[in-house]
Structures are given as C-alpha cells and as structure tokens.
Backbone:
C-alpha cells in the first residue's frame, strides 16, 4: 500500500510538472506535505535545500530521498520510476507532436503561456518557504541576507562584463 502511495504521489507530480525539477517542486510539496503528510514544511524545505547542493536532476533526488525515507529501498525505486518514466514517455510524445505543429501560432502561444504559470507556482512556494523561515529567523536577519545577496550578485555581474 505504501509503495503504491509513493508511486502515485510522484507519478502525479511527474505527469503534471512542466519545465523540469523546479516547476515540479510545488506539486511534490502538495503531495508530500499536504496530501500524504509524510513531512512538514520545514522538513520538505531541508530536503529541497539538500537536493540543490548535489549534482544531477533535482526532482529525482527529492523523489529518491522521500521515497527511501517513507518506503525504504522499494519506495526509493518506486518514486524515481514514477517521476522518470512518465516524463520520458511524455517528452517523446510531446516533442514529436510539437515538432509537427511548431509553426502554428496557437502552439507558440501555448508554450509562451507556460512560463508565467511556472513562475507563479515557484513564487507561491518561495512565499511558503519564507513564511516557514520567518518563524525561525528574525526579519532583520532575513533582510540582511537579501541585501548581501543583492550586493554580491551586482558585484559579480559587473565583473563579468
């Protein structure tokens, strides 16, 4: 039963996640934290942070860790298969179809329309993470981090030119 739940949670995320790992994170969050309650927001945030530090596809690392934590080795395999296999099958089917119809304006509009949707999903997740982080940190510390990151980004960008 648990393996089936793991597979279905990541299968839904894999089927609906368009645009790679970052766009799938809110979908996985909903399944793992909201639907199945395998983790809380803080734990999920830590898993995402850890997955970001490791090389390789983000969503497979998240799926593998959560699958292993919830269902052991079989849970890990079920989660990774659930996010990988549907993506491969859908990509082959969609790219074949898209290549055939790519010159049509409605197809071009459809692909452009996905960008704001993914942006909103990531924004909502960022706000949720900020709210969780705000419980443990004080606002001055958060603002100081934002300022330091902004200054460093500006300095590094000016050195690239």
Residues:
């Amino acid at each position: 039963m648990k393996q089936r739940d793991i597979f279905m949670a990541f299968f839904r995320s894999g089927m609906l996640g368009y645009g790679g790992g970052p766009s799938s994170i809110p979908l996985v969050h909903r399944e793992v934290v909201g639907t199945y309650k395998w983790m809380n927001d803080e734990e999920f945030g830590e898993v995402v942070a850890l997955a970001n530090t490791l090389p390789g596809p983000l969503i497979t690392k998240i799926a593998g860790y959560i699958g292993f934590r919830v269902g052991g080795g079989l849970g890990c395999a079920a989660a990774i298969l659930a996010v990988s296999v549907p993506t491969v099958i859908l990509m082959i089917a969609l790219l074949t179809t898209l290549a055939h119809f790519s010159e049509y304006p409605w197809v071009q509009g459809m692909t452009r329309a996905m960008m704001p949707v993914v942006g909103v999903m990531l924004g909502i997740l960022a706000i949720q993470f900020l709210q969780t982080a705000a419980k443990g940190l004080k606002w001055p510390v958060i603002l100081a981090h934002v300022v330091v990151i902004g200054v460093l980004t500006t300095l590094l960008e000016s050195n690239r030119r």
